[in-house]
Amino acid sequence: MYSYLSCNRDFNxxxxxxxxxxxxxxxxxxxxxxEALHLGHxxxxxxxxxxxxxxxxxxxxxxxxxxKCMWKNLTVEESKRLARENAKDIIACGFDVxxxxxxxxxxxxxxxxxxxxxxxxxxNMVKVAKCVTYNKASIISDTVVxxxxxxxxxxxxxxxxxxxxxxxxxxxxxxxxxxxKDKLRCLIPCAIDQDPYFRMTRDVAPRLGYNKPALLNHYFxxxxxxxxxxxxTVYYGSVCQMLQGETGKMSASDANxxxxxxxxxxxxxxxxxxxxxxxxxxxxxxxxxxxxNLEVDIPFKYLSFFLExxxxxxxxxxxxxxxxxxxxxxxxxxxEVLTEIVERHRAARAAVTDxxxxxxxxxxxxxxxxx
Length: 371
Hints:
44% helix; six-stranded mixed beta sheet; two-stranded antiparallel sheet; alpha/beta
């Protein structure tokens, strides 16, 4: 799991504080832009669930339906609907309802949420917004890009969004959970492309009297297309493989770049066999002679994460890398592993009801969140 991480910011401070008996909470999120999640969406939540279970801490999950409405040209109504559908997939990962609060931004800022809660979330948004100049968030010159790279062509909705994603890292934004705990630390597991939002947040947090949130940044999970290539500096790391061979992250707009949680066994077999980029040689003779290039082989990289048996993985690494095992054998194993994961998730998701979604989204105290 650790190899999945790109870098961290102040994670050691979280661990040191935890050893001293100090508490913290987790914050992560999802931009609901598609009906179904693919494994690249699911893996961060699997990791976050692991953290919640390991540390026994509360978790807030933000569904940025407002962001996707502005970036993806979705209607407000469709963004809100997709948020609830995505919430079912998140809940299906097995989060503890007694320690987890899921919220939609479009609902968070209006209506019932605000009653009796002093508009704390929006107040923090205003405070953050006052700390960040437009020059800092936009293109500063012809050669230097600011935090977000906004230009004159971007509508003002995009410019107003960064504080929305920033303030869940401040405990006072959730008075029903953390009243009187303004110094509570926050740990954010997130994809590397979200780092700019939290660089900004970490910059303004001390000015507003809060601890800087700590981050665990992870790579984009391997899309099916390519060998891993260094990414532009803005991403602070590398992006790994799409199934068919183009650099980038998994894309909801390209069904063949990823395995979806709605894919059937037949779909998974077809995608892996047809699109999963192979590090094997161009002939059996050459493969037996030179072995597979595991640095670019997508099936092996997927198995490196999803295959739980470390001894079996090491056996595959040696046999495939030496040429004694063929690409077809590795792909067959990957199909078996992914099919089991997807079918297990699909069964768990089918058991999630609208009432369960309402329970996770209810504005309520979590009295046992640290027990």
